[in-house]
């Protein structure tokens, strides 16, 4: 169903004059609200600027072309006198990043069980595979990260925030872009430097790989406060563990099955962040790899761009471009 257009006074009414703020970002603020029929909604009120206006139109156009269990539903929008708002279905368990990052090293528990984490990874992959292969128009998201994955009451993941998305009409999925887009730490090398290859759906695959490695590690991939230099960049650290056939050293693994899940997610993540886009699997292949046997997964070549920053003060981009 096409999203309904609401007036700004309607938006104020459904959010009780923006009383219940549930999120904040560079784009603006998110408020909890309720439609006249009783359905709970999340209302994203965008800051007013030319750029955000373009992102607003982009998000409405992109998401109205989708219908999938792993894509968040847009129920309405407001575009009135410079006021712009997007009205989404409410996701009671919030965004993924709130459940996977644990800043306290003394805690040995995870917010999510390994089996649930594994099902979330598969659900996100299915959502991306739908955008890349089964939409009427191929959609490249360009901002896949834990903050943009929302979880419903059953922890079913839904991809959100299509402000940076790009529609692609070519079958090979290659797009021309004048600007780099995405969030540092998840951006594929070719997006900011075309010498690494063409920008395509494989750029989303890279972001997905970085994200599921963070899901496994329970931390940001780049941690400048790590006690040992080798632990600063998680993909580099965990690759060495696999290479030397060492214990993964991850918290919360209590069984052979959980160890298998963690190892499978790591291997898939490392395949997804290969430097050359042509060496990365498609999202269809990612799903097969996740759902298939661990015996069928080989350790991928070490990504060329997996060097950690030289000092804790270095920014995350150093880890991406330091060859």
UniProtKB/TrEMBL annotation:
<keyword id="KW-0812">Transmembrane</keyword>
<keyword id="KW-0325">Glycoprotein</keyword>
<comment type="similarity">
    <text>Belongs to the protein kinase superfamily.</text>
</comment>
<feature type="domain" description="Protein kinase">
    <location>
        <begin position="16"/>
        <end position="305"/>
    </location>
</feature>
<feature type="binding site">
    <location>
        <position position="44"/>
    </location>
    <ligand>
        <name>ATP</name>
    </ligand>
</feature>
<dbReference type="InterPro" id="IPR008271">
    <property type="entry name" value="Ser/Thr_kinase_AS"/>
</dbReference>
<keyword id="KW-0808">Transferase</keyword>
<keyword id="KW-0732">Signal</keyword>
<keyword id="KW-1133">Transmembrane helix</keyword>
<protein>
    <recommendedName>
        <fullName>Protein kinase domain-containing protein</fullName>
    </recommendedName>
</protein>
<dbReference type="InterPro" id="IPR000719">
    <property type="entry name" value="Prot_kinase_dom"/>
</dbReference>
<dbReference type="Pfam" id="PF00069">
    <property type="entry name" value="Pkinase"/>
</dbReference>
<dbReference type="GO" id="GO:0016020">
    <property type="term" value="C:membrane"/>
</dbReference>
<keyword id="KW-0067">ATP-binding</keyword>
<keyword id="KW-0472">Membrane</keyword>
<dbReference type="GO" id="GO:0004674">
    <property type="term" value="F:protein serine/threonine kinase activity"/>
</dbReference>
<keyword id="KW-0418">Kinase</keyword>
<dbReference type="GO" id="GO:0005524">
    <property type="term" value="F:ATP binding"/>
</dbReference>
<keyword id="KW-0547">Nucleotide-binding</keyword>
<dbReference type="InterPro" id="IPR011009">
    <property type="entry name" value="Kinase-like_dom_sf"/>
</dbReference>
<dbReference type="InterPro" id="IPR045874">
    <property type="entry name" value="LRK10/LRL21-25-like"/>
</dbReference>
<keyword id="KW-0723">Serine/threonine-protein kinase</keyword>
<dbReference type="InterPro" id="IPR017441">
    <property type="entry name" value="Protein_kinase_ATP_BS"/>
</dbReference>
